[in-house]
């Protein structure tokens, strides 16, 4: 047994991001529906000793326009309480691409059409990214949606005040691929299993950084029937010079046998 590293952060906040009245329904798969998977992933994070909360993306476009400011205020408040903070932002929902290949987060299915655009039940990923980039702490964003890999199609430029903080992404699928829920080989189920498998036992060479977590999730995936490794890792902004020496470590905060 290889014991987990201690979390280097004084506080870790997991923010589950999901559409209000998301309309997830029972899928055709044998495992569970999307709402159950969403909460099971958050519960797995909670077993790490992390503070877990849910933020809903409003159906009202006027309220939704304030989401970036709302997240920035929440992130600023967290950093104010502790100078050593990690925020994990987990989005589960639909994703699509506009005509220019930009990632859009949508309430409904992946096929955008004029009727969907007319409902206003969508927003650009870049609106969320602006809040992430502005956070004065490390942020790991996990995107569980179709076309998630498009989140880094155009890498954002770093801003001088935030260069020393890491902004990394774990993406369920490449930009031109789809994902779903309710099957044992899909992202949510495999993320949850990887988190539980590594909560109390890390294999040799595993250090708990986002790249290693992606490898762990992909290993779970390929062991499933019809499973295939598709999870990606990247940086949202150019990593600072000390990134290799001070990586994000997603590790349990309370392990009884570690002092």
From TrEMBL:
Gene Ontology terms describing biological process:
proteolysis
**Stretch forming the signal peptide:** none
Tell me what organism the protein belongs to: Endocarpon pusillum
Q: What is this protein called?
A: Peptidase C14 caspase domain-containing protein
Specify the Peptidase C14 caspase domain's residue ranges.
Answer: 23-111
The Swiss-Prot or TrEMBL record annotates one GO molecular function as: cysteine-type endopeptidase activity
Extract the Pfam families matched here.
Answer: Peptidase_C14 (PF00656)
Among InterPro entries, the record links this protein to: Pept_C14_caspase (IPR011600)
């Amino acid at each position: 047994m290889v014991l987990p590293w201690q979390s280097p952060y004084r506080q870790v906040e997991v923010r589950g991001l999901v559409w209000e009245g998301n309309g997830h329904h029972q899928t055709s798969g044998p495992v569970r529906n999307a709402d159950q998977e969403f909460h099971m992933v958050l519960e797995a994070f909670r077993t790490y000793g992390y503070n877990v909360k849910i933020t809903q993306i409003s159906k009202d476009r006027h309220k939704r326009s304030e989401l970036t400011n709302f997240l920035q205020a929440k992130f600023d408040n967290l950093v104010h309480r502790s100078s050593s903070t990690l925020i994990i932002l987990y989005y589960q929902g639909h994703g699509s691409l506009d005509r220019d290949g930009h990632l859009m987060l949508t309430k409904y299915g992946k096929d955008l059409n004029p009727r969907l655009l007319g409902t206003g039940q969508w927003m650009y990923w870049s609106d969320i990214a602006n809040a992430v980039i502005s956070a004065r702490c490390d942020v790991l964003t996990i995107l569980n949606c179709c076309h998630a890999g498009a989140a880094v199609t155009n890498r954002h430029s770093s801003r001088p005040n935030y260069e020393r903080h890491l902004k990394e992404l774990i993406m369920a699928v490449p930009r031109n691929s789809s994902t779903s829920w309710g099957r044992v080989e899909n992202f949510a189920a495999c993320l949850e299993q990887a988190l539980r498998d590594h909560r109390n036992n890390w294999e040799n060479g595993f250090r708990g950084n986002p790249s290693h977590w992606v490898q762990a999730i992909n290993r779970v995936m390929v062991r499933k029937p019809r499973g295939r490794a598709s999870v990606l890792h990247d940086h949202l902004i150019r990593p600072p010079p000390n990134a290799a020496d001070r990586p994000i470590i997603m590790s349990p905060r309370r392990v009884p046998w570690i002092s």
